[in-house]
Amino acid sequence: xxxxxxxxxxxxxxxxxxxxxxxxxxxxxxxxxxxxxxxxxxxxxxxxxxxxxxxxxxxxxxxxxxxxxxxxxxxxxxxxxxxxxxxxxxxxxxxxxxxxxxxxxxxxxxxxxxxxxxxxxxxxxxxxxxxxxxxxxxxxxxxxxx
Length: 146
Known about the structure:
alpha+beta
């Protein structure tokens, strides 16, 4: 498994930007999810006591990634959950061309006494948003509204 992410300090001043990479769409989704998770909290301080399954479909891989990352932010706000890790299986339906995600988020309720909380991410934005394939690698650039 080879996926990475790095924060892009020169892209957004009031927001936070990152670039995620993976050798497959699944790895790209895991890297991008981990970047969002680590923007919100130190994942090593989150106990893996709750699991959330995410099933999504979208016409493009960019739409699917946007929805996946938005789900992480939504669950933080709506259910007061932060996450330790994410797994993702991303496939494309060859007949319809539609992209599919089977994702799992593992985490715990927000607890400022035991968790090292970072930025309060408000949303994933479309500003400079991009998903592309570079040879065998998949790359995404994402700006988060914090």
